[in-house]
Each structure stands twice: as C-alpha cells, then as structure tokens.
Specification:
Layout (H helix, E strand, L loop, with lengths): L29 E8 L8 E8 L4 E5 L6 H8 L7 E6 L5 E4 L3 H4 L6 H8 L6 H12 L18 H13 L5 E5 L7 H13 L3 E5 L3 H7 L2 E6 L2 E5 L3 H9 L4
Helix pairs in contact: 3-4, 6-7
Length: 247
C-alpha cells in the first residue's frame, strides 16, 4: 500500500562522503585556458576565461539572469565545447552535477530507495541494498517510511536530498550545483552549508542565496559583459552593486 502521508521532518543532517585525493601532485580537477563560448554563429557569451578548480575550491558563480552562468557550467562539465581555448578536465576527476531543474528530473512515481538501486544496481545483493540504505540515511532519508515513499509526495527539501544522495554515491571530487536552494527550507540550507564546510571535495554553485554563499564560498566569479571575472567583495556588496546598476 502506498505511503501517502509525508513523514514528519526530523532535524536535517547531510553527510557527504570523503572522495579521497584525486591527484597527489596537486594538479587541478578542471582548468579553463583562455576559453570563449557562443552558441552556433551567435554572439560570444564570454571570452578569455582562465581559472582552475581543485578539491579545496568553493566558488560561487554570480551574474544577472541570461548572463550565461548555466552555460558556463555546461562548458565546465564538458557538455559544451569552447569556441577557442580549452576547458581541461583531470582524467581521474569524478564530477557530479545537480541541475537547476533537478526536481523535474526525478520520477515522481518512483521511490528514493528504488530509484537509487535502479541507478546504481551494484551486484544486486542484500549487502549492496544495505549500503544504499545507509547512504540515503546520510541525507536524511532513513527509517521505514521515507525510503519507500512516492517521490511526488515528498517536500522540496526531501526531493533535493534524493538528488544530492544520488549525486554523492560515486564520491565526486567536485560537486557542481545550479540554484540548489530554490526549493529548500532554511533548515535544509543550513544542513547543506555544514556539509559543504566539512566536504573534502570542491564545490561550484550558481546561486543568489546570500546565506549559502557567504557561509561557504571563498571565491566569487561574476559573468558579465562577456567576461568571467573574480569579484573581490562580498556577496552582500555585489547585491548592493546590482541594485545600484553597477554590476
């Protein structure tokens, strides 16, 4: 029988797995080398992009709507190729991406444990299922109810935790998130902040969430005027500049 009632929320805790060290020599996970990009024969969205990303990176990508932030992520992830220059990925790097519309990508008629085992079937053993249950528990999806609940009956925060658990199963060295806080309550955002602080991998996030960025991100990069520039102020200062029309 379907479990229709959403289980009462417990205190949200997120625990990211340790990815281990990708490169003992300290080489970057990803490196932009004078990269430029535009769609087809259309105008250049950004050019001259040069920066590197490693396991200690905590980067927020900022910019107005339509500036090309999500496109920059697609180039970074290798989904799009630069017109000139390069975006080089370390051959041993494990990278996971949570898209802006990740909730729509989840099958509402599936259930967290079923979905996870379909995506990562392992050897099909009971011990693999037990490991998956333990993994889901690290993302607040434990107990007898939540792992078997129809995904469409879950809250926005619970659905995000399903997406996050799926992304983190392979222990990525780099986690890339596009607007992750859109459907999250404050408690889940706080749990995400704490998990990022303790994570041994790199994080890149497109977000407007001042709390998330100010708590986690050591590096701010702004997509504007066909450039991707390092911003040396705070997220609060950047938002003030936006309001004044100076950014």
């Amino acid at each position: 029988e379907d479990v229709k009632e959403v289980e009462a929320e417990k205190a949200t805790v997120l625990m990211f797995p340790d990815p281990g060290i990708c490169d003992s020599l300290g080489n970057a996970l990803l490196r932009f080398d004078d990269a430029s990009f535009g769609y087809g024969d259309g105008p250049v969205l950004f050019s001259g992009v040069s920066f590197s990303i490693d396991q200690s990176s905590r980067i927020a990508i900022l910019g107005r709507n339509g500036a090309g932030k999500s496109t920059l992520l697609k180039v970074l992830l290798g989904k799009l190729k630069p017109r000139v220059g390069a975006c080089q990925q370390h051959r041993g790097a494990r990278i996971q991406y949570i898209a802006q519309h990740h909730l729509e990508a989840l099958d509402g008629d599936s259930r967290p444990l079923k979905l996870a085992l379909e995506r990562y079937p392992g050897d099909g053993s009971n011990s693999h299922e037990l490991r998956m249950r333990q993994h889901l528990g690290h993302f607040g999806l434990s107990g007898d109810v939540l792992p078997h609940q129809l995904i469409r009956t879950l809250s926005g925060g619970q659905k995000f935790r399903v997406s996050l658990a799926l992304a983190m199963w392979e222990k990525p060295h780099l986690l890339v998130m596009d607007e992750p806080t859109n459907h999250l309550d404050m408690e889940t955002i706080d749990a995400l902040v704490k998990a990022i602080e303790e994570f041994k991998g790199g994080v890149i996030v497109v977000s407007h969430d001042e709390h998330l960025i100010s708590s986690c991100c050591k590096e701010l990069r702004v997509v504007a005027n066909r450039r991707v520039s390092q911003y040396n102020g705070t997220i609060a200062q950047y938002k003030q500049q936006i309001l004044k029309g100076k950014a």
